[in-house]
TrEMBL record:
<keyword id="KW-0472">Membrane</keyword>
<dbReference type="InterPro" id="IPR008166">
    <property type="entry name" value="Glyco_transf_92"/>
</dbReference>
<protein>
    <recommendedName>
        <fullName>Glycosyltransferase family 92 protein</fullName>
        <ecNumber>2.4.1.-</ecNumber>
    </recommendedName>
</protein>
<feature type="transmembrane region" description="Helical">
    <location>
        <begin position="9"/>
        <end position="28"/>
    </location>
</feature>
<keyword id="KW-0808">Transferase</keyword>
<keyword id="KW-0812">Transmembrane</keyword>
<dbReference type="GO" id="GO:0005737">
    <property type="term" value="C:cytoplasm"/>
</dbReference>
<keyword id="KW-0328">Glycosyltransferase</keyword>
<comment type="similarity">
    <text>Belongs to the glycosyltransferase 92 family.</text>
</comment>
<dbReference type="GO" id="GO:0016757">
    <property type="term" value="F:glycosyltransferase activity"/>
</dbReference>
<keyword id="KW-1133">Transmembrane helix</keyword>
<dbReference type="GO" id="GO:0016020">
    <property type="term" value="C:membrane"/>
</dbReference>
<dbReference type="Pfam" id="PF01697">
    <property type="entry name" value="Glyco_transf_92"/>
</dbReference>
């Protein structure tokens, strides 16, 4: 025996530790082994129908694939953003087809359901597979078994395979537009404020909206500002418009918002220096700087090693208005005129003020709505005297008298440019055929 002949307690202890370590290493190797890609077929051409939908249901209807992304920040893997049932999906396999050598590899996936599921049975999920070492696959298929015929599986293009130089500084991710969204005026004002502050791209995960809103989106798409990602999640799951599970029959919260946000980060990882995660009725307003680029340069200099910047959310109730900027041509446009709402609610005692984020997408692994779940680098809370989130919506403290609200006219610093730009968009969209 390995430990025979050892009489002292010390020697026995060392011997036990050695054997334990050897067993542990062997166990870890065995645990890792199934995840290594294995050749299952040779001399085959890559077949299978290429998936074109934003959300693809796999057979069995417990797993939904959004998109796979190449991720070599720790090791060479394909990371698929998806949605799975947190209890019923136990194993999945990536099928990689290598065009160069005609070999098909199968790799066991790590299924990582995000912790912020809020009680719903389905949640945002990372499906992570090691890639073959001698191949850079362009497509991947997913199956619950390592056996079968790849020709019967949908194929997904692996994005971010080739590094790109940043095409934009700031991309705003909005998820998800639903409920026949028709807040047209506020949406246009938000888009124009984003552009004034330095945004070049806005990505919108659209479930549905009004016909008029479609017209506005078409304008911004043709302008090059907006990219619309179809988000038909209610075709696959029973969705809730609430963020927390209410013990009903719904399967995923807030139209799969968290999944869309994670997809948006990876989608823009190689093309945008920063990604901004907020809703269409939210604007991060800098107080010490004229725009976001100047603000972020300063914040990065003051906070080296930081990859996540969190900004306080402040409610400007739409029920409380100012008579200023009552522009007659805007009164026929559905939606809220944010220039007339400059009274914000005070902070509530013993209530955590939610935050939204500007992040370095290359440093984020998983995100939730108000914080990142996993990231490289630090997170920092940005003081309110540097910037705040202007959030014009239904008030949360409806019984407060006007004198208890705080008058905050920061938004008015941009009124001249904002009015001019909004009028331009309205004249080419909503008001185009009006006399």
């Amino acid at each position: 025996m390995l430990c025979s002949g050892k009489k002292s307690y010390f020697a026995a202890a060392v011997c036990i530790m050695t054997v334990t370590s050897m067993l542990a290493v062997s166990y870890l190797k065995l645990q890792r082994l199934p995840h290594q890609p294995k050749v299952v077929q040779e001399g085959r051409r890559c077949r299978g129908k290429i998936a074109t939908s934003t959300i693809t249901a796999l057979e069995g209807n417990k797993t939904f694939i959004i998109s796979p992304y190449f991720d070599d920040r720790e090791s060479k893997v394909t990371r698929l953003i998806g949605i799975v049932h947190h209890e019923d999906v136990k194993q999945l396999y990536c099928w990689f087809c290598c065009q160069a050598n005609g070999k098909i590899y199968v790799s066991k996936a790590e299924i990582d359901v995000h912790s912020d599921r809020f009680g719903f049975p389905y949640g945002a999920t990372d499906i992570v597979c090691l890639e073959p070492k001698n191949c850079d696959p362009t497509h991947v298929s997913i199956h619950e078994s390592p056996y079968g015929n790849i020709d019967q599986l949908p194929r997904f293009e692996i994005k971010n395979r080739k590094p790109e130089t940043f095409s934009v500084d700031f991309t705003v991710c909005i998820s998800a537009m639903f409920g026949n969204y028709n807040n047209v005026l506020q949406f246009i004002q938000s888009m124009e404020m984003y552009k004034i502050l330095g945004v070049q791209k806005v990505v919108i995960y659209k479930n549905n909206c009004s016909h008029l809103m479609e017209k506005v989106l078409k304008f911004y798409i043709e302008e090059g500002t907006v990219e619309v990602i179809p988000w038909p999640i209610n075709s696959h799951l029973r969705v809730s418009s609430e963020w927390r599970f209410m013990q009903d029959e719904t399967q995923i919260g807030y139209y799969g918002q968290i999944t869309a946000l994670n997809d948006c980060i990876y989608r823009n990882m190689e093309r945008s220096k920063f990604v901004v995660l907020n809703d269409a009725d939210e604007i991060i307003l800098p107080l010490k700087h004229p725009d976001w680029k100047t603000m972020m340069n300063s914040l990065q200099e003051q906070n080296p090693g930081t990859s996540v910047f969190l900004f306080e959310n402040h409610i400007f109730p739409e029920a409380v208005s100012s008579p200023m900027f009552n522009i007659s041509s805007w009164n026929t446009v559905p939606g809220v005129n944010i220039l007339q709402h400059v009274y914000r609610e005070p902070d509530r005692k013993d209530v955590i003020n939610p935050r939204k984020m500007i992040v370095d997408p290359r440093k984020v692994i998983q995100t939730s709505v108000h914080s990142v779940l996993r990231a490289y680098g630090k997170s920092v809370y940005i003081p309110m005297d540097v910037a705040l989130i202007y959030h014009c919506r239904k008030g949360l403290q409806g019984n407060l008298p006007r004198e208890s609200l705080i008058r905050d006219t920061t938004l008015w610093r941009y009124n001249s440019s904002l009015i001019m730009n909004v009028n331009k968009v309205l004249s080419q969209t909503v008001l185009q055929n009006q006399n």
